[in-house]
Design a protein that fits this description.
6 helices; about 40% strand; four-stranded antiparallel beta sheet; transmembrane helix; mainly beta; five-stranded mixed beta sheet; elongated; about 1300 residues; Cadherin_CS; 96 strands; single chain; about 5% helix
Length: about 1300
């Protein structure tokens, strides 16, 4: 308001114009709920999300009557007129959620929120369910917090607690104690056998009936619809098939708690059928395996032979078989078998010529605890492969033939043997095709005959070839000397000799005497037993010849032991030569037939056999078949079997078939009496033994047969006691083990596996039992008040047999029920400043729900701030009193917890909430909140209406009741009232105005801040505020920095400073990177108060990327309104972070000759490094381990050269590792491998394999093979070079030994 200046010219004249100051509300009041706890009881579970559970604020007509009655007479009427219209009647108050805020306008506008996921709340405070609610939660109660938030610029929040108690509705299906029950029953279990017990509880408390919904199509199972007991049907007897049954069992409630319909739940009962192991594995095709199994010789180990398969009629593990072999412990198996698939493969290479078949005993064992074994005995034939060439019986053939021998005369039979079989061993003969064809050989018989006249010849040599059916061949030399009719060779007494000897003929025994004489003047002859090439012709040597000087004959004697099973006959060729000037020779053949003697033991195929027989099997049951092999023939190889007696007496319970080896039972066995038997079986052949020390007894062998008695479930379990009794406290925890009962079963393994079940007496499913242990434990909380005693009937079952016992559980009463108050919250009120303490406020009451509890023994106590000081409680009656004068302005609401403890204060405790409101009287004057010093700021030249400051006062009285705290504001004057003459400054009341409601001071006319004001109820000082009118500037005009590429993120690059002439927040500066950093490698940290900025690394740098070697950054500094820029160059320095790399890293060179010259370059290896400067300078070297002898060298250009002579015979291939090292700090390395094979050069001569000491016998007609040592007649040589530069070798006799023609050599 402007002043009238004309009035100022009069002396002693003044005026006081009114100043209106509007007080603007400050959000300084916190929303307060009328109640600390709101409750809603009996909310049905089926309530929908559209149903309101607690309403919002009410109207004035619904005032709280209890509050009004607290004031007497006329004061009561005044209170009704003054009360804020936000209260409801007492019975509605608990259903109304409301809060108040003593501020005004938007600062007093409230919105309601809750963090509960189960409930939602409208902005006006109405609570709704957010989804389905559940009665079956803990204490049937929901408790959550509601917030009231005002709309001030800085909002304030008040909170309260809401409790919702639910009412039960049948909205939950029964719940099984398990989703899946697993149990078992024996396949031979009888009628009414208990299988399982299912248990379900209904959370709504309804009754339950049980039913098997599916999985029982064969009707083997029945269920007790009340108890949940599942048994096998009684009639007809159950027939269990398969491995398991899956029964789907339903539990349906009776809908007693009320609902749209009955509800049901489903559980699975998986009943495993325990198979009785009463079937042995059987090889159904065993005979076929015996007839057809064979494998080709010379095949590598692992060659497929046969896949056997055994069938076991049992189920599960009883019907699952594994395969194996049964053999002697000391023998190395020739075959191996896969235990799961039955595939038989070779374990080594076979040679049919050494052994033509193998006896194999295959076992199939089931996987039962007491396994049964099936066997299949077969012979695996070794098929022939043409891997042998024919062998002639003699090393060479020689014959003396008269010159007048007629054409067509057969004079010599050559014979060759082939160790192969069939067509591979069919030999045909041929002769070298030389003209004229004096001689020919019969291709089938081998007889050599005269084809053309030979009288004109003195000597004929030919080569005879034997070829088998597979085109393998060998040759022998035939030498025929043509003799003059008058010059006759010696004459043998017989053309051939035959003799029969037993195979056990001892060494040096003469077997035959032979004789030849010369028809010439000197009758003497020399004898020689020709060397053979095959066993039948004395190779190896089995016979030797000794001349008899007395009569000019010769004897053939046994040189080494004979073996009928190896070679049954011999054809020995003997040469007789006369002593004429031109010696002539004649030949004869000695046929030696070897007869069998009983020299082989009938060995069992295994030293220990294992078999099994089921207990209870009838007498005569076949248990096992043992088998032995005897290589002898006829009666010598005929085997009989018997059981040997021993002290254990096990043999008397079994008998054995003496011819076939089948073992049968002679009694019925009981495993529980004896579980295994050990038999000693003997094999005896059919004739007296030829082995030394047997004294006319036949050969024999023994083996052991371990026979296991397989268990049969023939014993029922038995509890140790017929009944048990135990006490347990009613407050024992869920899971507490009450008692462990156990039963014993005389069987073993799966037949003794017991399952425990509670069959009856378990009211409410309070107990459960560990099914495999028998431990009874608490499954639901006990309650003495509901049930004092349980008599549980417990079953132990092995799947077939069962036994019962009873367990009596006595529940020991405990004080487990806390006292309960009649209501969950108590409300009371008392007026402040009342005299005459103590003042009665309200009374609480509680009761003890324990049975037989003494209700008079309850003791009350008050807890919380103010208990025992401002308020007290009578511990017996529960009456609460205010014992001091209260001041509402100090505290308007008192909240307490009242405890009620039974057993005279020594037992359990219940609690309730007590809320006491203190009602207001007008006993406080308003007070300015900024007193004694109130300051405001205003910018110069501010226009009228500009907000200057808030002058806010408070009144400690209750703003929500009456006018005790309703305030109005005005300016009463200025501190400076003297300068009122013309031209003076305007007064405070001229320059400013105040809002009478809010206390807000604004500019009334143009003026300057900092004037002094007239005194008033509150003094306001107004100061000038700074305006942001200066731009910040960097202190440096140039900027350059260097940073290594390996600098870590957040590392400091440089620090910059700036200046700003403004002050306060206008001088707080922010730094940033605005250009030159497209990939955001940098960022700036601002230190606003110090006006500094630090440039830091945000992401890792990579010098090898060209665009990251130098950055031209534009940096920015800014205050709230202005900014300036600075260009900064950041150079990135290289770091050695790349190792040298070879491309390729593996180089395979073409082979080089081993005599390559030293200094020859073989390859150039070049590595590259992505770094720069010295970090990319590279030095090369060879890894010492790859070239330990220094045969190669590499220069610094990467050129690899030969440094020393190479030797292929020492190292055939070189693997050189080239190392490249850079010059960085620290240095890095890379490597490459060079593979250099060498070609052989013929630089090594042949060497004899050994030092030979040849021996030659005098007086022996030539040609004589010289034995070079005790074992060989051959000279062998080796060459260290490769095969191309090695054999074949040529052997010659030195020149000094050639002239006598005493020795010749032949290369083979």
């Amino acid at each position: 308001m402007a002043c009238n200046s004309s009035r100022l010219s009069f002396s002693n004249i003044s005026s006081s114009p009114p100043v209106r100051v509007v007080i603007v509300d400050e959000n300084d009041c916190v929303p307060e709920f009328l109640q600390s706890i709101y409750s809603k009881d009996g909310v049905p579970e089926t309530v929908t999300t559209a149903t309101s559970l607690l309403q919002g604020a009410c109207g004035a007509e619904e005032c709280h009557p209890a509050v009004i009655s607290a004031f007497p007479g006329l004061l009561q009427l005044l209170f009704v007129l003054a009360i804020v219209s936000n209260f409801k009647t007492l019975h509605q108050k608990k259903n109304t959620l409301s809060a108040t805020d003593c501020d005004s306008e938007q600062n007093a506008e409230l919105t309601y929120y809750t963090l509960s996921t189960d409930f939602s709340i409208s902005p006006h405070g109405t609570i709704f369910p957010a989804g389905p609610l559940d009665y079956e939660r803990l204490n049937h109660l929901y408790e959550f917090v509601v917030m009231a938030i005002d709309k001030g610029d800085v909002p304030r929040t008040g909170t309260t607690t809401v409790r919702i108690r639910m009412a039960n509705v049948n909205d939950e299906a029964p719940e099984f104690s398990q989703h899946i029950y697993r149990t078992f029953v024996s396949e031979d279990a009888g009628p009414n056998t208990l299988v399982a017990t299912v248990l379900a509880k209904d959370p709504d408390g309804d009754g339950i009936t049980y039913k098997i919904a599916s999985g029982n199509e064969e009707g083997n199972f029945v269920i007790d619809n009340q108890k949940g007991l599942i048994r096998l049907r009684s009639s007809p007897p159950p027939r269990l098939q398969g491995v398991e049954y899956v029964l789907n069992v339903t539990a349906t409630d009776d809908n007693a708690s009320g609902g749209p319909q009955a509800l049901a739940a489903t559980a699975q009962v998986i009943v495993g059928v325990d198979d009785v192991n009463n079937n042995k594995p059987v090889f159904e095709k065993c005979q076929q395996y015996r007839e057809t199994t064979a494998v080709l010789e010379n095949q590598p180990a692992g060659t497929f032979v046969l896949q056997v398969h055994a069938v076991d009629a049992d189920e599960g593990s009883n019907g699952k078989v594994t395969y194996g072999f049964m053999h002697k412990d000391s023998t190395v198996p020739a075959f191996s078998i896969h235990s799961d698939t039955g595939v038989i493969v070779t374990a080594r290479k076979f040679d049919r010529e050494r052994q033509r078949e193998y006896a194999v005993t295959v076992t199939a064992t089931d996987q039962a605890a007491d396994p049964l074994i099936g066997i299949c005995q077969l012979n695996i034939l070794i098929l022939d492969q043409n891997d042998n060439s024919p062998k002639f019986e003699n090393i060479r053939y020689e014959y003396f033939l008269r010159e007048d021998t007629m054409i067509g005369t057969s004079f010599l039979r050559v014979a060759a043997h082939d160790d192969d079989f069939g067509t591979n061993a069919a030999v045909t003969y041929s002769m070298s095709n030389e003209q004229p064809e004096y001689l020919r050989v019969n291709p089938l018989t081998g007889w050599v005959y005269v084809n053309q006249p030979i009288s004109q010849r003195t000597y004929i040599t030919r080569e005879i070839v034997a070829t088998d059916g597979g085109n393998r061949s060998s040759s022998v030399e035939l030498s025929v000397t043509i003799t003059n009719v008058k010059n006759q060779p010696p004459q043998w007494e017989k053309d051939s000799y035959s003799v029969v000897i037993p195979e056990n003929t001892v060494r040096d025994t003469p077997v035959v005497t032979i004789k030849a004489t010369s028809p010439l003047g000197d009758p003497r002859v020399t004898y020689n037993l020709e060397d053979g090439m095959v066993p039948e012709t004395n190779m190896p040597v089995r016979f030797y010849l000794t001349p008899n000087r007395e009569d000019g004959s010769a004897s053939i004697l046994v040189a080494e032991p004979l073996d009928y099973e190896t070679t049954r006959n011999f054809m020995l060729r003997v040469r007789a030569q006369n002593v004429a000037a031109v010696p002539l020779a004649a030949f004869t053949t000695v046929y030696v037939n070897v007869t069998d003697v009983n020299d082989n033991v009938p060995f069992f195929t295994s030293s220990i056999y294992e078999a099994s027989v089921t207990e209870g099997a009838e007498e005569g049951t076949m248990v096992f078949q043992v088998s032995a092999n005897d290589l002898d023939l006829g009666q010598n190889g005929k085997i009989s079997y018997s059981l040997l007696e021993d002290r254990s007496g096990d043999y008397q319970y079994f008998r054995i078939d003496p011819e076939l080896g089948f073992i049968h039972t002679k009694t019925v066995f009981d495993r529980e009496t004896k579980s295994s038997y050990l038999l000693e079986v003997q094999s005896v052949d059919g004739y007296e033994s030829a082995r030394p020390g047997k004294h006319g007894q036949p050969n024999s062998d023994t083996a052991y047969v371990r026979i296991f008695i397989s268990d049969v479930n023939d014993n029922k379990p038995a509890f140790a006691q017929a009944s048990y009794e135990v006490d347990v406290d009613e407050d024992a925890d869920v899971g507490f083990a009450v008692l462990t009962v156990s039963a014993n079963d005389g069987d073993e393994g799966g037949n003794a596996k017991l399952r425990y079940q509670i069959t009856s007496g378990n009211t409410g499913g309070v107990f459960d039992v560990e099914p495999e242990v028998g431990t009874i434990f608490i499954a639901q909380p006990l309650d003495y008040e509901q049930n004092k005693r349980y008599k549980l009937h417990l079953l132990a079952s092995d799947g077939k047999w069962e036994d019962y016992t009873s367990v009596t559980v006595n529940v020991v009463n405990k004080n487990d029920e806390a006292p309960v108050f009649t209501v969950n919250e108590y409300y009371g009120s008392v007026t402040e400043e009342l005299d005459g303490s103590p003042v009665f406020v309200l009374q609480v009451t509680a009761s003890d729900p324990d049975k037989d509890a003494d209700q008079e023994a309850l003791r009350y106590s008050l807890h919380g701030q103010g208990a025992d000081s401002e308020f007290i409680i009578d511990e017996v009656t529960g009456k609460i009193y205010a014992q001091r004068t209260l001041d509402r302005e100090e505290r308007a609401v008192w909240r307490f917890v009242v405890l009620a403890t039974d057993e005279s204060g020594e037992g359990l405790t219940g609690f309730t909430d007590v809320i006491i409101n203190v009602w207001d009287i007008n006993d406080n004057a308003p007070i300015f909140t900024c007193a004694p010093s109130c300051h405001g700021d205003v910018a110069e030249n501010s226009p009228p209406g500009t907000l200057v400051m808030e002058m806010t006062a408070t009144d400690l009285d209750d703003s929500a009741v009456g006018q005790n705290a309703v305030l109005s504001y005005r300016i009463v004057g200025s501190l400076d009232a003297t300068n009122m003459e013309v031209g003076g400054l305007p007064t405070f009341s001229d320059m400013f105005s105040i809002n009478p409601t809010t206390g807000t001071i604004t500019v009334a006319m143009n003026g300057s801040a900092g004037w002094r004001r007239d005194p008033g109820t509150g003094t306001a000082t107004i100061q000038i505020k700074d305006v942001n009118d200066h731009a910040p500037r960097f202190t440096d005009h140039t900027c350059m920095a260097k940073v290594s590429e390996n600098a870590e993120p957040n590392s400091e690059v440089l620090e910059l400073a700036a200046e700003d002439r403004d002050t306060g927040e206008n001088a707080q500066l922010t730094f940033s990177v605005v250009a030159g950093d497209q990939e955001q490698k940098f960022y700036m940290v601002s230190h606003k108060q110090e006006k500094r900025g630090t440039l830091r690394i945000k992401k890792r740098l990579d010098y090898e990327r060209h665009n990251e070697q130098r950055f031209n950054l534009t940096l920015k500094v800014e205050d709230l309104d202005f900014s300036s820029l600075l260009h900064c160059v950041v150079e990135v320095e290289d770091y050695n972070d790349h190792a040298p790399v070879f491309i390729p890293h593996f180089l395979s060179l073409a082979p080089l000759p081993e005599d390559i010259s030293v200094g020859t370059s073989v390859a150039r290896m070049v590595a590259s490094d992505s770094d720069s400067g010295q970090n990319r300078d590279i030095t090369y070297r060879l890894l010492e381990e790859s070239d330990p002898d220094g045969l190669f060298t590499i220069d610094q250009s990467g050129l690899l050269s030969v440094a020393q002579p190479l030797d292929r015979e020492k190292t055939a291939q070189h693997q050189l590792v080239v190392i490249a090292t850079d010059h960085g700090i620290p240095s890095l390395t890379g490597s490459a491998t060079v593979q250099l094979p060498l070609l052989d050069v013929n630089d090594n001569g042949p060497e004899f394999e050994a030092v030979y000491s040849p021996v030659v016998f005098e007086n022996v007609a030539g040609p004589q093979v010289v034995r070079l040592n005790q074992t060989s007649t051959l000279i062998r040589a080796v060459d260290r070079d490769s095969l191309e530069n090695g054999p074949p070798f040529h052997f010659t006799v030195p020149a000094e030994y050639r002239h006598s023609n005493d020795f010749t050599s032949r290369t083979t």
